[in-house]
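Deviation from plan, reported transparently: pyridoxal-5'-phosphate complex.
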Amino acid sequence: MARVSQRLQRIPGSATLAISTRAREMRAEGRDVISFGAGEPDFPTPEHIVAAAQRAANDPANHHYSANAGLQPLREAIVEYTQAHSGVPVDPSQVLVTTGAKQAIFQAFAALLDPGDEVLLPAPHWVTYPSGIDLAGGVTVSVPTAMENGFKVTVEVLERYRTEKTSLLVFVSPSNPTGAVYTAEEAGAIGHWAAANGIWVLADEIYQRLVYQDEDVAPSIAGVNADLEDCLLVNGVAKSFAMTGWRVGWMIGPDDVVGAAARHQSHATGNVNNVAQMAALAALTGAQDTVVAMREAFNKRRQTMVAMLSGAEGIELAEPHGAFYVFPKVTALLSPSYPTTLALAEALLEEAGIAVVPGESFGAPGFIRLSYALSDADLERGVSRMLEVFGRL
Ligand SMILES: Cc1ncc(COP(=O)(O)O)c(C=O)c1O
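Because the crystal trials were delayed, the predicted structure below was used instead.
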């Protein structure tokens, strides 16, 4: 008899974490590794947030269990933040604070899906969604997008994949891994289609403030659609405030579903770490200039990366407008020696000390994901070294 349940046998480890771990190991062995694998800002958490956490750690009120759904001042701050950035009016009772957006996503699937329910997931997609859907008993229906269309789905394409079992659409803008950002008009049309067809929307807005065009926030599918009631918003402090390690995210939605997710959480983890919640409170309510400064730094790196990759032999690129990733197509570089992007990524890491994430992890073989959340010097050195290796293939 198998020692591990069939359910968990089907769940692969996170490929992005595996690459970062291998890159760290190689560095510990003294190798010069430049990693484009990171899914997190390279900046430290802003000082005023760390100071708030230090104060919170000294306060015995934070040494004990607290409300499962989150500290009330934080839930209230999340309400203000959501109104300001997503344009959605909500009540604190609709907010569930979670251990990172990841826990919100897993709990959202657990709260919404029954066995056999189909979830439309535009591909390329972030590695974690299919595992959450599978563990909740749902079925992932991957909806392909094309680089030529900026990796975005349209109502027309979604409609082709809709069946009577379709219960949920996962909508991520800006997207990991493609950096695609939907306009208000595009998000509006998709939200309207979902509402008209009784399909729930899980809107992952974790990168909403990392956008590099005219606006300083990505349009929220819930904010631009008054008729979209069956929608869960997922967000957190990880990416905008360089707080990935603090593990604070949240989910917002209708009372019944958020209440069900809260019951799930009350058994799984209970309240999120109080000190981290107080740090998140300082992030949301404090000065926002560090967010702007980080965004400007990412934008500069994005431009450098795009300039260096554009026109390089064997690489095709759609300019990303959000998050901190570029997602070039490299099929022209594949060969019998490196038949897949997985093989190419392994060779790049072992032979040249360059870590990239292969497209297979995102349901997009033939592509690689490069994060530009690394120092300017490493970025330029790393891309040059990678292009040198590609030139020799
Ligand atoms: C699209 C997306 N959503 C959610 C997360 C996870 O966020 P958190 O660190 O808050 O769990 C990530 C992290 O890479 C992500 O890329």
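Residues 53 and 275 are 5 Å apart (CA to CA). We consider this an acceptable substitute for the interim report.
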